[in-house]
Write a structure and sequence with these properties.
alpha/beta, Rossmann fold, seven-stranded mixed beta sheet, 27 helices, 26 strands, 39% helix, elongated
Length: 685
């Protein structure tokens, strides 16, 4: 017997993994015809599903209707996978012309105390976090107009031809009747008409724009968070909009001129009736049926089935990331291969960033849009004063501290970025957003627990910034000597130029570059220690500046650990001596004492031995506070699988999975190209 689920729609085929998880069947795409199957899938009862429904009837097979759930995504559109789906074997929730699984559930099912508690928690979360089906509309700065405490009425428009209108036993004239009734029944009220978001760009037609003008009603013709409208409204009139249900959750009176799934159960003022819906239901029972049992939820990043409250938390995370980008952004001096992730991370109510080809163009667009320029760290740091003198705000963009499985200079794609509106984390000459965050951070118990779990996971997985795979074994070291790890750095890196002050180098006038200077100081400070010098991987693998001559290195260090992963060395080090290397931060995560000669972001908080202290950093932090600030709150993370912003925990698992894979042709090619680019730059100096 066939276990196939036949799919005709390309959109549903893109969701075949989700459909398989919901049905237990094996999706098969029907390109030219039909074949034996267990069931046929289609998008609800929409016209686009007619072929699928006809095929199911012809074969005598069940038709399974799928639809987006009541909590879908940030924006509408097929480019974003839905966070929830509905599967219905009887009908579909928005078509009251026949029963659906949801209607049958409400007509006869009993709900457990746990389900009712979950429903109450869902309603509380949606009200608190202001979440809806789509979540790209901003919260308004002003309230709806109201004159002298008059009753406020909100009438909801919908898109022309929406399946829920005919399915809700309504038609075009129903909208006209609704407006007339709202006027007649509320003669002294302030009445507003909310146009549907998809009608604002004229991509679709609505029903009420002309009616609102004819009755001289206030028209809300801009994107507005639905909960902001609900909070400013006493009474909502709708045909079949989901916003009517959300208004019920907000404690508002709702009049329905159609028959949406939440009407007919004694909760709404219904202008139509269906004999099948004769049982009274509480709002919590309707939510338990619709949001707990009927809709199914998928992890935004891993697409595993999750519970509704987990999905709400993830949707809130994505919405907050989206809403934080309220100002238009113009990218400048950001490499093409980095633009995809940065576009996703900077996507906001004003759209994705525009990338300019020149500084003049960037300034012009930013002024025109009243936006900010987002520029890569080196450019932003060196040109910040001049750009700001043009009256343009600037955001510095850099790789984050858990970056990639491979070197950035070898074009390994990053999963983390830092966006700093004040400065940049590696420039101690002026404050940065990270420094301000760490100076004021206060951890809730939940955030502290999260920081502790994150640190434990990073250590368990052996993650660092670059996560280079290697077959090198952990070197053997003497047990009777202190093991001091000295990480080398790229000497023309901005972190060296800015984080190691000229005064400090002048006071330590040792010969050679900064790496040799550091190694000499480490030997001077620890004459009896077993010193391991670790060249920076960009230097040893790609040829960037920072090589210490072999003779000098061997005279000062007991071991030069070439091609050995830094995480292996951190496993045996008892102290790290560094200028500004991120290895110092990675050592702190593992409880290793760190001596700092420069002024990196993690120094000055009482966790390191600071040989060149920065007086501006006076607060003492514990390790959880540093981890929470530097790894959870400050960076932004990008998931290369879902192509969405993600929490640090998702990025950590992606890095571990990527590192575990064998190196591919793309990885090797990136390293070759990186080595070539660096050689050309050296030649041009």
């Amino acid at each position: 017997m066939s276990n196939d689920l036949l799919i005709f729609s390309p959109g549903l085929w893109n969701l075949r993994d989700e459909l398989a998880a919901l049905t237990g069947l094996k999706p098969k795409f029907a390109l030219f015809g039909t074949k034996d199957c267990a069931a046929v899938a289609g998008w609800g009862h929409k016209p686009t599903a007619r072929r699928a429904r006809r095929a199911a009837a012809a074969m005598g097979k069940p038709y399974i209707a799928f639809e987006d759930g009541f909590l879908r995504s940030i924006r509408p559109g097929a480019e974003t996978r839905p966070m929830s789906l509905i599967m219905d074997r009887s009908g579909i929730y928005y078509d009251a012309r026949g029963p659906s699984d949801l209607e049958n559930m409400l007509a006869s099912a009993d709900f457990s105390g746990e389900e009712i508690e979950t429903a109450e928690a869902i309603m509380a979360a949606l009200r608190r976090d202001r979440l809806s089906k789509y979540n790209n509309a901003p919260n308004p700065l002003e309230r709806l107009p109201s004159r002298g405490g008059r009753k406020r009425i909100l009438i909801l428009d919908q898109t022309h031809g929406d399946a829920s209108i005919e399915g809700g036993l309504a038609a075009d004239p129903t909208f006209v009747e609704m407006v007339a009734a709202a006027k007649r029944e509320n003669p002294d009220a302030d009445i507003a008409v909310k146009l549907h978001p998809e009608t604002l760009s004229d991509s679709k037609r609505g029903y009420l724009r002309d009616e609102a003008r004819r009755f001289a009603l206030n028209v809300i013709d801009r994107p507005v968070n639905p909960w902001a409208l609900i909070e400013d409204t006493d009474h909502v009139y709708t045909v079949s909009s989901q916003l009517g249900l959300e208004a019920l959750m907000g404690g508002r009176k709702v009049t329905c001129f159609g028959m949406p799934f939440y009407a007919g159960w004694g909760l709404t003022d219904d202008r139509q009736a269906i004999a099948r819906r004769s049982r009274g239901r509480s709002l919590a029972e309707v939510i338990a049926a619709a949001y707990v049992r009927y809709a199914r939820y998928f992890d935004a990043w891993n697409r595993r089935l999750v519970d509704p409250l987990t999905a709400i938390g993830q949707l809130k995370f994505l919405r907050d990331r989206f809403a934080a980008n309220s100002q238009p952004m113009v990218g400048y001096r950001i490499a093409h291969w980095k633009r995809g992730p940065i576009s996703a991370l900077l996507d906001g109510p004003q759209g994705r960033p525009v990338f300019a080809s020149s500084e003049g163009e960037a300034i012009r667009i930013a002024k025109q849009k009243q936006g900010r320029i987002a520029s890569w760290g080196r450019t932003a740091n060196r040109e910040a004063q001049r750009l700001r003198s043009e009256g343009v705000s600037l955001t510095s963009v850099e790789d984050g501290f858990l970056r990639s499985a491979g070197l950035g200079a070898a074009f390994a794609r990053s999963v983390s970025f830092t966006l700093d509106d004040t400065g940049i984390y590696y420039d101690p000459s002026r404050p940065s957003d990270l420094e301000a965050l760490l100076s004021a951070i206060e951890l809730t118990p939940e955030l502290r627990s999260r920081a502790q779990a994150l640190r434990g996971r990073i250590i368990a997985l052996g993650l660092t910034k670059y996560n280079l795979a290697s077959d090198e074994r952990v070197p053997e070291v003497p047990r009777d000597r202190e093991v001091v790890l000295v990480p080398g750095q790229v000497i023309d890196d901005e972190a060296i130029r800015l984080g190691v002050t000229p005064d400090y180098l002048a006071e330590n006038p040792l010969e050679g570059g900064v790496n040799l200077c550091l190694l000499k100081l480490a030997r001077k400070r620890h004459p009896g220690a077993f010193i391991i010098y670790k060249p920076h991987p960009d230097v040893e693998r790609l040829g960037r500046l920072g090589v210490i001559a072999g003779k000098d290195a061997k005279e000062l260090a007991d071991m030069v650990a070439t091609n050995t992963p830094i995480v292996a060395l951190l496993g045996i080090a008892q102290r790290v001596e560094t200028l500004t290397s991120l290895t110092g931060f990675e050592a702190l995560l593992r409880g290793i004492p760190v001596s700092v000669h420069g002024q990196p972001f993690y120094a000055g908080w009482g966790l390191t031995e600071d040989l060149n202290p920065l007086s501006r950093r006076a607060r003492k932090l514990d390790l959880d506070e540093l981890v929470a600030g530097a790894l959870i709150l400050y960076p932004r993370y990008y998931d290369p699988v879902s192509r969405l912003p993600c929490p640090v925990e998702v990025a950590v698992e992606r890095l571990a999975a990527k590192r575990a894979k064998p190196r591919g042709i793309g990885d090797m090619l990136g390293e070759i190209i990186g080595r070539t680019v660096i050689a050309v730059r050296k030649f041009g100096r």
